[in-house]
């Protein structure tokens, strides 16, 4: 078993299919960082978003829509943390989920997201700058919080995934405490990630959280994880309340990853 930080193959000039909008041309070699730790640098994201109009980490909405609609309905107030230039909110809106708040640490991402949504007629989606480690919202104000690939950023310099650095643990815990705080008493946190259950459970299952944890997978050759944490549903003190809904089959074939998602493959066992 080994843990290797791997960088993506160049995808310059590759046509990337934007499943919600129209096909877009990727200029990914222009936006790739020199090292994975750059993902922790807010300036990296500002520079990137000033050049890049759209990129979906870990697949777009169409790939996990069937899972998400089990947990969200049109009356749900939804917070997305680390929205980047994803079109997730547009997909949700198209399914009648209109009480949406998109946030990102990057002012460039926020400005461009606002412009894009207004130009496409989504006047009712709220977009604001916010650090997920210190969310500017009152306690218990969202039914659902979603993150897609955002928590993974905190793990890029974690070191040994079985024993992450203290700095990584502190940041991940700060993020989770904020999300737990802003969720309503029976609210749901959805985390879409590469992180396997044995690496996420030590965080999600901390006894200070009242949520239960279950997970599903999606994807064709390579599987992504779709975690559902239901606040107030933990069975008992000290009980991690984890439930595997579907056994994942992890593919070792890197060629099946057609994108920069590859870089976040730090927490995956080589099988
Ligand atoms: C890997 S991208 C994922 C973007 C988007 N969720 C998607 O699925 O395509 C990570 C995003 O997290 C944002 N981010 C990084 N640190 C953050 C923080 N502390 N608070 C909020 N957003 C953050 C970055 O600006 C970037 O937009």
From TrEMBL:
Segments crossing the lipid bilayer: none
Gene Ontology molecular function: methyltransferase activity
A GO BP entry: methylation
Xref: Pfam families: Methyltransf_31
Domain of life of the organism encoding this protein: Eukaryota
Keyword ATP-binding: no
Domain Methyltransferase: 75-195
Known catalytic reactions: N(6),N(6)-dimethyl-L-lysyl-[protein] + S-adenosyl-L-methionine = N(6),N(6),N(6)-trimethyl-L-lysyl-[protein] + S-adenosyl-L-homocysteine + H(+)
InterPro entries: Lys/N-term_MeTrsfase_sf (IPR051419), Methyltranfer_dom (IPR025714), SAM-dependent_MTases_sf (IPR029063)
The keyword Cell membrane belongs to this UniProt entry's keyword annotation: no
Alphabetic keyword roster: Methyltransferase, Phosphoprotein, S-adenosyl-L-methionine, Transferase
PANTHER family: EEF1A LYSINE METHYLTRANSFERASE 4, SAM-DEPENDENT METHYLTRANSFERASE SUPERFAMILY PROTEIN
Known function: Protein-lysine methyltransferase that efficiently catalyzes three successive methylations on 'Lys-36' in eukaryotic translation elongation factor 1 alpha (EEF1A1 or EEF1A2).
Family the UniProt entry places it in: Belongs to the methyltransferase superfamily.
Protein's UniProt name: EEF1A lysine methyltransferase 4
Organism, as annotated: Cinchona calisaya
């Amino acid at each position: 078993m080994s843990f290797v930080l791997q960088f993506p193959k160049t995808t310059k000039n590759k046509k990337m299919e934007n499943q919600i909008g129209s096909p877009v041309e990727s200029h990914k070699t222009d936006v790739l960082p020199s090292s994975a730790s750059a993902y922790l640098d807010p300036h990296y994201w500002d520079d990137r978003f000033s050049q890049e109009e759209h990129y979906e980490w870990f697949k777009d909405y169409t790939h996990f829509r069937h899972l998400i609609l089990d947990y969200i309905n049109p009356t749900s107030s939804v917070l997305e943390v680390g929205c980047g230039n994803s079109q997730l909110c547009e997909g949700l809106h198209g399914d009648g989920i209109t009480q949406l708040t998109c946030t990102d640490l990057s002012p460039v991402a926020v400005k461009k997201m606002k412009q894009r949504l207004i130009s496409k007629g989504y006047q009712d989606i709220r977009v604001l700058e916010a650090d997920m480690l210190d969310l500017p919202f009152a306690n218990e104000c969202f039914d659902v919080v979603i993150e897609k690939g955002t928590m993974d950023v905190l793990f890029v310099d974690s070191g040994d995934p079985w024993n992450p650095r203290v700095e990584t643990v502190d940041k991940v815990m700060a993020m989770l405490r904020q999300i737990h705080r802003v969720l309503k008493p029976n609210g749901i946190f959805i985390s879409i990630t590469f992180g396997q259950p044995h690496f996420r459970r030590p965080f999600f299952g901390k006894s200070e959280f009242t949520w239960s944890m279950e997970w599903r997978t999606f994807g064709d050759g390579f599987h992504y994880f779709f975690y559902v944490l239901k606040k107030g549903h933990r069975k008992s003190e000290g009980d991690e309340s984890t439930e595997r809904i579907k056994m994942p089959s992890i593919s070792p074939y890197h060629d099946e990853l057609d994108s920069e998602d590859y870089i976040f493959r730090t927490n995956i066992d080589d099988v």
